[in-house]
User: What shape does this take?
Amino acid sequence: METILTTHFADDGYRRIDTYRRFGGYDALRKALSMTPEAIIDEVKKANLRGRGGAGFPAGVKWGFLPKDLSRPRVLVVNADEGEPGTFKDRVIMGRGPHLLIEGIAIAAFALRVHLSYIYIRGEFVREAKVLDEAVAEAYAAGFLGKDILGSGFDLDLTVHRGAGAYICGEETSLINSLEGKRGWPRLKPPFPAAVGAFGLPTIVNNVETLADVPWIVTHGGEKFASIGVEKNGGTRLIGVSGAVNRPGVYELPAGTNLKEIIYTHAGGMRDGKALKAVIPGGSSTPVLRPDEIDVAYDIESMAKIGTMAGSGGVIVIPEGTCMVRALSVLMNFYAHESCGQCTPCREGTGWLKKIVGRIEAGKGRAGDVELILDLCDNMMGRTICPLADAAVMPAQSFIWKFREEFDRHIGEQKCPYGNRF
Amino acid sequence: MSVAFSDTARGEFELLLTRYPDKGAVILPALYLAQREFGHVSDEAIVYVAGLLGVSPAQIEGVATFYTMYNRKPVGKYHVQICRNISCSLLGAEHLIEHVAGKLGVKPGGTTPDGKFTLSLAECLGSCGTAPVMQVNDDYYENLTEASIDAILDKLP
Assistant: This one.
């Protein structure tokens, strides 16, 4: 099967520019510079390239939101803040194929008439930031970044900027505030970043994987890319499988690959021969699935049809014997910790969810607690500036809807039937 | 007690100023420089960074306290951060945390009396395919077991 991104990732030298170029690296940039910006955007639209960060917005359409007026400089910001629990794919791209990303940035910047770009990488990825820094220096030295790239007259500066430990900064307006040196509070929209973004300038924020797909699209054409995936979701996806499987890891598979096949064939099936209990399919925020629901195509539309999301491509596999209340408690601790505190429904709501789920797990749940959680969820969902509250609500609701008996049993028996252990 | 960057850090700081259209963007990288230079982001470090950028210490403190990676208090020579999120928990992180806490004789958040280790719990480190995972200073250690953690920690000078 054809791969787009990971083809040479097993080669340690691939992170260096010489090896990257030996495999045709930066030829796509050369080709792009001979095209018109509009023609490049057209190919990306034809490719049905959907944002790989979680929301799945069509990249070409997003690019079209920049104002036509070129009087103000524009900024391209790469979202490399990979923080959604269960997601670990962009780290692999940056660590093993940094030039794929840099080439994608250069092409996108040319298409968007951007001369200033940043990679905002999560602070914990110290090693990957170093790999990127070295790769950026190589690209400058080779004339793929900087002034008059390949004699085209096109200039682009690129800087690697480290975040400092805040999940919320993966939300694009929070990321922009953080890049500007502020607390990572999300901004009210509108104005959208395409109109007023980083440093007050029109800004496009794209995920690492999204941009890394761009060189291939330029080389092979949008239609070819689209033909790899499914109708509205072109190309491959880097799917990170974690939890109780025999071969956890990142798998590059066509969008629309069956989720059951991802777990049982690619990731080697269940660890220790345990039965499957649940799957969180697209990062910790996405609604959980029961085993009878995973015979589904893993693409944006198909997952939406069954009430969940492919999200950021992080498949978390939960085995039989896991306490679902304890698992939810771990997630609720996380969202309470990461709420930025700006909006009351989220700041208070995530705290309450943590407290109530925590007391149920501790054997101190009260009658009516489950209804209280669901009521809280109704008062959080869609009532905040950014989707962090929604991200906490989706697991809370779906765990209760699909594993209600475990919550009731904890409250009824006033203890965790699993002995408060994983 | 006032503090100041070394010439090296000062040079890095000046270079950073050339990379952004607004000097505010240098606050996060400057705080990293301060943490590297002074060991942690002390009150004096905040005043110093504020002075370099011509903004109020309150603004810098407001930023520094939003992010988990700026240590406002000193940490041990090795900052051991064990992920406790879902993928790591499914593969035994809770047991590993207990094991390390017992081994070092400190609770999460604590520092050993000799100042060598600080133990912290981390949220998802973005390495779920090689869970359980911990970060010690700048480095990730993956696919951890009690035995491998013992070997890693025992080897640190």
Remarks:
- Chain B has two domains: 7-64, 78-155.
- The first helix of chain B runs from residue 7 to 17.
- Helices of chain B lie at 7-17, 27-38, 43-53, 57-64, 86-90, 93-104, 146-155.
